Amino acid sequence: MAVWTIRAVSELEIGAGAAYDFPSSYAYTSDSLPSMHRDTLRSYSKTSHNFKYHAYTTLLRRFGYLTVKAGLLLGEKWSSATYDGYTHVVTKGHWVPVVPSLHLTYRTPNMHNFTLSYTHRTSVPTADQLTSFVNYDIYSYSIGNPDLLRHTHNVEGGWSKYYEGFGNVGVDAFYHANTGGIFKIPIVNPKKTLIGK
User: Fold this and answer.
1) Element (H, E) at 24
2) How many of the other CB atoms lie within 10 Å of CB of 46?
3) Is the backbone peptide bond immediately before 34 cis, with ω within 30 degrees of 0?
4) What three-state secondary structure class fits 189?
5) Would you say 104 and 61 are in contact if contact means Cβ atoms under 8 Å apart?
6) Neighbours of 66 (CB within 10 A)
7) Exposure class string for 78-100: b at 16+ Cβ within 10 A, else e
8) Residue 137 to residues 30, 80, 87, 128: CA-CA distances in angstroms?
9) Domain boundaries, the chain
10) Pairwise CA distance, residues 131 & 192, whole Å
11) Residue 73: CB partners within 8 Å, gap ≥ 6?
C-alpha cells in the first residue's frame, strides 16, 4: 500500500493485494446400512483451490467545511473444484468485482456534523454453492446454482452536534438493498424415504 499527498487539502491512497489458496483435498466415505458396503452414491472426494487479487484507490479532498472521499476497488477471483464420486464434475467460477464508494462529510463552525455515504459490495459464492454435483444425504440432497451472485447497496446518512458539558447528540439513518442473493433453500421430502433406495 502507498499513500501520496497531492496537496495540503488532498490525499491519494493506492493499494493492492492478492491471495492464493493451495489446492486442498477432502474425501467423504459413507457405508450403506445394514450391509456396511461402500455407498457409491454418497461417497466422494473433492479438490479445490482459489486465487484472487485486487487493486484500489481512494481520493480525499477538502472544500472548506466539506470533505469528499471517493474510492474504487477492482479485482478478479477464480475458484475451481473437482468432484469425484458417482460422477465426475469440474466446477469453475470467475468474477470481476467492481466496488465503488463515496463518503461526504460537512462540518459547520458551530459543531454541526452532516454525513452521507454510499458503498457497493459484491459477494461471490463458494464452489459448493456453484457446482452441479449432487451431494446426497440419507433423506436429502443438495446442489449448487451456477448463476449465484449478490450485489449489496448501502446508503447511510447522519447528523450530530457536540454540546459543551454534555457531549454528542445525533441521528443516523441507513438504507440497505440486495440485488440477487446467496441462500440455502430447503425443499422437504414429505415421504421421508431413503434417497437412492
Assistant:
1) strand 10-28
2) 21
3) yes
4) coil
5) no
6) 12
7) ebbbbbebbeebebebeeebeee
8) 9, 23, 16, 15
9) 2-180
10) 25
11) 54, 55, 56, 97, 98, 99, 100
CA angle (180, 101, 147) in 5-degree steps: 20
Reported as a single tens digit per residue, the pLDDT across 33-77 is 555 666 777 788 889 888 999 899 999 998 889 999 999 999 988
Residue 173 pLDDT class (50, 70, 90 cuts): very high
Q: Which residues, other chains included, contact 157 with Cβ-Cβ below 8 Å and sequence gap of 6+?
A: 114, 115, 116, 117, 172, 173, 174
The mean pLDDT of 15-23, rounded to a whole number, is 87
Neighbours of 101 (CB within 10 A): 17
CA distance 112 to 118: 21
Burial of 191 (0-12, 13-18, 19+ CB in 10 A): exposed
102: β partners: 70, 118
- Taking the C-alpha atoms of residue 195 and residue 197, their distance in angstroms, rounded to an integer, is 6
> Residue type for 26, please?
Y
Q: For the whole model, what pTM was predicted?
A: 0.71
